Structures are given as structure tokens and as C-alpha cells.
Amino acid sequence: MKQLILAITILFFRISFANAQDFVFSPIDVMQGLSDNQIRYILQLPDGRMVFKTSGNINIYDGARFRYIHQGIQSIYPLGTYKGHYRIYQSDDARLWIKDDHKLMCVDLRTEKYITNLNLYFKKKGFKRSVDDIFLDARQRLWILAANRLSTIDQRISLQIPATEGELQDLTSEKDSLYLFYNTGKVVCYDLKSKKKLYSAAAYPADQQKVFKSTSLVVKAKDGFYQLRNGSMGGCFFFDIQKRGWKKIMETHYALNTLVVDTNGRVAISSAKGIWIIDGYGREQRYFPTLKKADGGTLNTEVSTIFYDKQGGLWLGTLNQGLFYYHQTRYLFTNIGRQYFSTSLTSDVIVQAFAQDDAGYIYIQSQSGIYQYHPAHKNGIKLKPVDFHAIPGVILDQLNQNHSASSFFGDNQTSKLTDIRGWVWTGTYDGLKVFDPVSRKERIFYARDGLSNNFIKAILQDRFHNIWVTTSYGINKVQIDPRNAQIHFTSFRSDAGTLDGEYTNGAAFESTDGTLYFGGINGFSVLNFNSVKPNKQPLKAILINLFLRGEKIETGNKYDKRIILKESTPYTKSIELSYDQNFVSFEFSALNYQNPTQTYYRYQLEGIDRGWKETSSGQENERLTTAGILEASYTNLPPGNYKLRVMASNNRIWDGPVTEIYLSILPPWWKTNTSYIMFTTLGIFIVLTVISIYVKLTTKKLSQNHREQILLLRIRNLVEQQNILQTEKGSDHVQPRPGIILEEDTNYHNKAEAIFLARAMEQVEKNLEVPNYSVVQLSRDLNMDRTGLYRKLITLLDKSPSLFIRNIRLEKAASLLLDGTFSISEITEKVGFSSASYFSKCFQEVYGCKPSEYAEKAKKST
């Protein structure tokens, strides 16, 4: 009798709700990058990314791409008592704990790798015995069950639970109370402060324990807990915390897989045969054995798992067909495709115009005939062909008028509209023109400005003065900022329910109830304006990828001997790069699952960008993909510290959180403070060394010049003494003439040396006017070899023979300059210099001035 009642109940739900297709699901499978189509569990991370556990591995989804975390056999830890299906917990230390039928695995989300030795991990935490099971409570505390002792992972709280209660299958918490759920259907409540048992309550009598003993899944709700139980049957129960009692919500003859509760308290349950939606703690239950897909097909398979995300989206994981996603704002448009038209499969359906009769029926004119559309037909979409002769004349006139209105424009024009402001909108083959008659200015907009396509098909102004534009691909809503008259475009493509193809010229219509109709190739799109709800869900951009010089950076890997990402990108707050790693690109995702093509970003790299840069999906020449991923690239960044700020929005209202990434470009080693100190020290050392060398050389030169002057005086004295010796022969003592200094010089010991120097000077003076008089000739005149002359003069005068000859010439030149009788050129010849320039150069080296300045300088010194 019970089975009969259950069958009647299921049949009632099936009949009542089989056509209640208010859910339209978009598929996400291996074609979009999912690792495999066997979905086992769904979870959402605190940062908003989705986690999908498949039979193959873990998939982390950012709204556009999947990242895979591969597991190895060494990462599996045996669980002693757990006999259920996949469950995934995220603890507050950024770890994912995955358990499945006596197996446990753990993923560190910061490194996106499995922990390979959980046995060692548990031992370090103080658990010496094997772990039998793990659980996560509502406060994100991880509990470990080992040998009937239940402890938190930090062992601050520990309970000894009696084995007589049965097999512990699940737990959760509420304030200071801990609730333990057993395979007997009983819940036992403990006070965590006193660690004492407060009470227990059974969900069903003892004779039903075998029916629901196999698995348990507990989900916290506002006033209590929902629990799914499976065995030979499936059941959903609700435990009221205040009343401390159970209520059976539903019972099925098949397994109930997973349960989720949304922010409004609505429950969704996945099962082997469709999904259940339950409101009001079971008072309203809707059953969907089959579900509608976006392509018009139906989903009829086991739904293995179900999940509500933070944006209100509903995710379904199937046994073998991948993922399916639904959001109430996603499919704003109803797509009436060619399958609703009675025409052959080979011929196109080109919708040309619309009209409406007094009963509210819509008439659609196509090249293959005229159809009547029933917007609110009780059996769903109803489109039927109408005989031409049965159509009222007023409707034919409307159709003809609307159709002809799109064909009178001139070359390159497809449509035209004057809006309530007086602006003139003109659609062309290449862009949308807007003319303001007040300012007499015309602007033109293209896909780079946000249009979904450059080829404009139709323009419509609705009763709320919104402008709608159809194109060769997609529909655009025009938004005009009243403050500055800036024009923005919101694009709607096939992922919003529009036609997956081209629209037709002028085929746009608004019915009396405000519904909008847009005609195209192979069908038309319908938008009920009353169903359009502004999307105020705040979005936050997260960093999902980093590229250096076009190469994707992986966590933990070295690049140019440097680990760039020590943690995965969503957990990275600062990045340090070397000076030659300054070609960097960032990828951000706003995790806009419901409408990825309606994602807007603004970003700024402080220190480089003067202000915010804004971009949106679909804009040409912008770094934003159609999947809503922002790519911000910077090249040749100079060394320094920067802060990248990124914001995301789905409505151009920038009131959401700001994501900040600190970027440091290190200078090259030669531009560091250490190198500056080293270079400064080295520079000071070099300067001091140069100064020291200069001082030494200058001192040496001055000393040398002084010595030369002294030697010349000595030579003159010796010559005078020689003259005295020649005139006073036979005298034993020589008396110097007045004005002649006779020195007692230890360098010249004897008269032979004095006589030698006098002879040498005499030979040079005799040949002063001979320019080519050389050391060789002097050595011949003195009857000496050249080497001997060199050694002799070096020993006596510390001068080479050539300098000896030159200095005598210069001394003679100085006396002639003082005399003032001869010109400089004449003196040059008289003292034997080959050229006046060479003479002047040598004279300046010895006397420190030009020959022309010498006489005047000598007068001043006297």
C-alpha cells in the first residue's frame, strides 16, 4: 500500500511539473575544457571559483577556463569506517579534503597539489592511531574520528563517543553545540563547553533503520538541518533545533544524491531520476524528471550532484553528460527557432515583420508565410501558420508597413530612428551613427565601442525610452549616462537566449504589453521586459594567470633562477621580478557565471597609468575575452614598486571591492644601493689616486725643471771657470770674475768633467743654426760614441743628449727674445728649430709661456 501511495505521489508530481520548464540549463562539458563528463561533487571556494570533482581529477573553474589538479596513488589515505560517496570539505587553512568509500585525499589550494603523505601529516598533528573518518562543521573546523575519539584537528576539543550509538556518519555545529548523526537515524547533541551530551532524537522509528542506514548528508539551514539518507530507499528529513524534533520531507524509491540550500531557504535535491525543488520546509515540492537545455533539447539522466553558488546560479553535475548551469538572469530572451515553423529543413526562415491584433496575438511575416504566435499559451510556445485570406486586413497593413519601413533607406543604411531626445540613430553596414541636432555633432560606434557586431540591422525605442539595436550577431541595449551623455552598450548573445545567427533589417517590434520581438534568420527572439531584473550582484576580480614575456608562470617553478609564484595566483598578493622580467601580463576573472559577456572591468597600474582604464566584453582591440577574462599587459616596466588595482562589474556601477596586486621590479645589480656605495667608494678612490699621481708628477716635473735650471747655471759657471783657466795659465789658484758664482759641487769632482761639459756646450753653441745638428754629430765632435755620450750626460746632468742640445738652444732663444732685436721666426732659425710651432711648443714646456710673451713676462718679474 505504501509503494502504491508513493507511486501515485511521484506520478502526481511528474504530471504537475513535467511542463513547468522554468529552468533552462547551459551545458559545460569536455568541449569547454572539463577534464571528463562524470561529475561527482561540486563546491565553491571562498574566492568564488568553482570546484568540480570528476572521476578523473579536480577541476577548478574561473568562469572561462579549467585548471586541473592531478592525483597520484601516493596521495590516497585509507579511511577505516567511511562507506559513502564523494564528499569534499574546505578547511580554513585553504585545504580541500576529499573522501570517497574508505579513501581520503587532501589538496593544498595554495600550491594546487595533493599532499602525498597524509599519514605523516596526521602524526605531526598528534594522531598516533589510524584515522577512521573526517568531518567539517559549520564553523569550518575539521574533526578527526579515530578509535571512537572525536577531536578537532588542533585537538583543542575532544570527545569520547560511545560505540553503542552506532556508526557516526556526519556532524555539524550551531554556536556551542555539536550535532552527531548516526546510521541509526539518531542525532545526538553535545555541549562543547562542558563536553556533555544534551539530548538525542531519532528521525524515524527503529523498524525503518535498515531502509536509510547506508549514507548521510547533512546541510545546515536557517532553523535547523536538512539530512539526506539512503539505503533501499531515499529520504529527506529536517531537524528543527528549537523543537528538537524531526520532520520527514519526502521519501523516494531511488537514491537522493546531494542537497543544497540557497539564500532564500529553497532546497534543491539531485537524484538518480531528475531534481527536486522544495520550498517552505516541504510544503511546496516540485519534481523535474527532465530538464530543458539551452539548445532546445532535454536533459534526462542521473543528476549526481547539485549546487547553488553565491550568485544564485544552480549547477547540476551529471553521471556522464558533464555540467549544466542555470541562472534566472541568464536567459532573458526566448529563442523561437526554426523548429517551431512549419517549413522544410532545407529552407531558411527569414522573419521580416511583426504585427499584433486586439486579442494580443502576434503575427510574424516570413518569406515562407505568415504565422500566429500565442505568447501565453497554456501548453508552452505555440506558433501556427495562418492562411493569407484569413488574416485581417489591418494586420496585413501593419505587416506591410513594418516590412516596407526597413527598405526605403539609402545606400549603406539599414535602419533609422529619432528618439525622445531628438537624436537621430542610423544603422549602417559598418557601424551605428548618432546625430545630435543641438550640438550638430555626429558620432559613430563600432564593435570596439561595445557593439556586438558592426553590421546594424534594426533600431527600436521601447516605452521606457531604451534603445535596442540588432546586428548580424547579437542584440545590444543602449545605455546613456544622463550626467555626461556618454553611450554604453550591453550585448546579448546566444548565451542570453538570443538567436545564434543573423538578424534581419528593420525586424524589431514592441507589443502592447511591452514585450519586445526581434526577427532574424531562422527565427526570432522574444524579451518580456517585465522579466528583466537589474543584476546588482557585486563582482570581485581575482588573479588567475601571470605571464612573463608571453610564458605562463606556474606555481613553485623557477624562472631565471627565481621562484615567481610561491602560491597559486588567487592567493598571491605581491610579486617580485628582476629587472629583465619586466614584460608582464595579468589575467583576471570576475567569475561572472550568469552573464560572462556582460562583464566590465577597470584597472590601473599606479605609477604607470594616469587613471582608470575601462573595458568590456566584445570590444575590439581590447584585452578582454568573450568569456569575461581581462588581460592587462605592461611592457618594459622600469625598476620600481607598483600597485595594480582591478575592479569588476556587470552593470558599470563601480561599487564592488578592489583587487590589489603589489608588483616590485628589482633594479639590476649595478643600480642597487650596495652597488651605488661600492661605485662611490671606487670613484673616490680613483679620484684620490689620480690626484696623488698628478701631485707626484707635478712635483717631479717642477723638481726636474728646477734641477734643469740649476744645472744650466752650473754649466755656465763651469764654462766661465774654464775660460778663466785658459786665460790664467800657470796659476795655482783660480779667482772667479765679478758676478760669477763658483760652487763647490760634489757632482763634478774634477776639472775634467767641467772641461767635458764646456766642450759639449761649445759644440752645441757653434751649431745652433744647424737645424739637423743631432746627438750623433755631437758625439763625433766630442770624439765619443753615442752610448758613451748618453751615459756621461745622464750621469752628470740627469738629462739625455737630445734634451741637453734642446735646452741650450732654448736658453739662447730666451736671451735673444730679451734682446728684442730679432723676430720669433728669425730666432727660430738662429737656434736651429725646424719650425716656429715646434719651437713655441718646446719653449712653453720649459718657460711656461709663449715666446711672444716671454720678454713681457720677464720685465714684470723684475
UniProtKB/TrEMBL annotation:
| Any GO MF annotation of the entry | DNA-binding transcription factor activity
Specify whether DNA-binding is a keyword of the entry: yes
InterPro entries associated with the record? Homeodomain-like_sf, HTH_AraC, HTH_AraC-typ_CS, Ig-like_fold, Quinoprotein_ADH-like_sf, Reg_prop, Tscrpt_reg_AraC-type_HTH, WD40/YVTN_repeat-like_dom_sf
List residues of the HTH araC/xylS-type domain.
758-857
Query: Where do the TM regions start and end?
Result: 676-697
Signal sequence span per UniProt? Answer: 1-20
Q: What is this protein's record name?
A: Helix-turn-helix domain-containing protein
Instruction: Provide the species name.
Output: Pedobacter petrophilus
